[in-house]
Amino acid sequence: MADIAFLFPGQGSQRPGMGRDLVARHPELLERYHRPADELLGFGLSKLCLEGSAEDLVPTEITQPAVFLTSVAVLDVLRGHGVTPSVAAGHSLGEYTALVCAGVLEWTDALRLVRKRGELMAGVNERTPGAMAAVIGPPAHRVEELCAEAREKDGAIVEVANYNSPTQHVVSGQREAVRAVMAAAKAAGAERTVLLDVGAPFHCSLMKELEEEFTAALDRVVFRDPVLPVRANVTTDRITTGAEARDLLRRQLAGAVRWSDTLEAIRADGVRTFVEAGPGRVLSGFCRGTLPEAACHPAGEIRRIDRLLRALEKDGPVPA
């Protein structure tokens, strides 16, 4: 089997009923992950994943552990079929699942951290209402310029939070400043701008205030050295030690997700097959936009996992 990169999704990939088909075929997942997660967190996260509405999954403090739990279940199913990665990476929240995949974190410790992260981020939005928006079309340097112009004009905070693909970037910050960048981008010829339905302005300097409290949470958890390479969001470099992983998760709160550069770095290592191990197909779209020659496989549902397994048997790509 050729080298495979596992890509783990973040917030925005949630959907009602995620993981329901997984537990229908693999009921052992309920005892292995879902029920322990409910007990650990003290509420019915598994029911929200399997039966909750789109509205139920909107709050950041729910979305983050829900996506994480579903991704861990997908990872278990893939490993059960003998599909193993040579490298892992996760988009924002997904970096926690990547670290579980690499043996850096126990999944239960990662779940506690993800829940705390979501609660802290939601609190920032209550104190300083923010927003995030996707800007589609302009290259990174142009979106950076539009953010700088908005900051100079009003003194508000707005920054590039996600470098998702060469033509898709997300800006984050105070609500009116984000809207100003959206308007300026449209006036400058952007193909499209989309205000994102998220619970807080992630990955911008508004999140700096969380670092001290979240660092205390990180320090209570054991971080081991990775058993396989993980590419970090904020640097795109390989994470080599547990201590480095801990520090990078702290920096990730207010740091930009350099996703397209991460994919390029993985490709430079010779990997040509990418598997999105979690709900949705967002990362597969970013992968195709960044690496059009690569084989990008969403694998968050049983039918897609079955399709992936057939493709890997033939060692060839499959359509999404």
Concise overview:
The chain is α/β, with parallel strands linked by helices and 320 residues long. Helices cover 49% and strands 14% of the residues.
Quick tags:
single chain; 320 residues; alpha/beta; five-stranded parallel beta sheet; four-stranded antiparallel beta sheet; 13 helices; 9 strands
Can you tell me about this structure?
There is one protein chain. With 320 residues, this protein is α/β, with parallel strands linked by helices. The protein is 49% helix and 14% strand. The protein contains 13 helices and nine strands. It has helices at 20-25, 28-41, 45-51, 60-80, 94-101, 107-127, 140-154, 175-187, 211-219, 242-252, 259-268, 282-290, 302-314; strands at residues 4-8, 87-90, 130-136, 158-165, 168-174, 192-195, 230-231, 273-276, 295-298. The strands form two sheets. The protein has a five-stranded parallel beta sheet with strand order 7-2-1-8-9, sandwiched between helices. Strands 4-5-3-6 form a four-stranded antiparallel beta sheet. Helix 2 crosses helix 6, helix 3 (45-51) packs across helix 4 (60-80) and helix 4 runs antiparallel to helix 6 (107-127). The two termini are 20 Å apart. 52% of the residues are buried.
